[in-house]
Amino acid sequence: MGFTNPESYLKPATPKIKPYQVKIMRFLIIDDSSVDRHVLASILETLGHDVDRCESATDALSIIEAGKYNLVFLDVVMPEQDGYKFLRTVRLNPSTASQYVVFCSSKKTPLEIDYGVRRAGANDYLPKPVSRESIEQVLAKIPA
After folding, report:
1. pLDDT score recorded for residue 4
2. What Rg value do the Cα atoms of the chain yield, rounded?
3. Coil, strand, or helix at residue 111?
4. Which tens digit of pLDDT belongs to each residue from 90-137?
5. Does pLDDT of 24 surpass 60?
6. pLDDT at residue 118, as a whole number
7. Alpha helix (H) ranges present in the chain?
């Protein structure tokens, strides 16, 4: 039994994969740590997204009201006002109540994560240190 066209068996197969469509999104990072803000922003920007940064919750509410963010990454432990209290303020404000918020914190025990999502009202929880994979998992959950 011989091959009729041996060259066709030597060529690599062309994958039949649909091109990956990246939806450019806009994010706000509220974190008092410049290093954590930089790491998270760098990964998001590498993925092609627009990122704004804020180092405290002090002016963040007006920034959220003015911007149209797909998601706000919010640190839990911050000096002036912690993320839990700030998220309550966001949820009580009619113009920001439906904002998609993800806690991004080094507090990562199951109890702390459960509290952040169920009791404090975050949409999701991203434990630090973040990775590209963990960020992509969170981004995949954002409603269209």
Report:
1. 53
2. 21
3. helix
4. 999 999 999 999 999 998 888 998 988 999 999 999 999 999 999 999
5. yes
6. 92
7. 7-10, 34-46, 60-66, 83-92, 110-114, 132-139
What is the rounded CA–CA span in Å between residue 87 and residue 99? Answer: 10
**What span, in angstroms and rounded, lies between the C-alpha atoms of 142 and 62?**
22
- The domain segmentation of the chain, as residue ranges, is 23-139
Q: What is the CATH number of domain 23-139?
A: 3.40.50.2300
pLDDT of 71 above 70: yes
- Nearby residues of 87 by Cβ (< 8 Å), 6 or more positions away: 74, 101, 103, 120, 121, 122
For the chain, the maximum distance between any two Cα atoms, rounded to a whole number of angstroms, is: 79
Three-class secondary structure of residue 40 per DSSP = helix
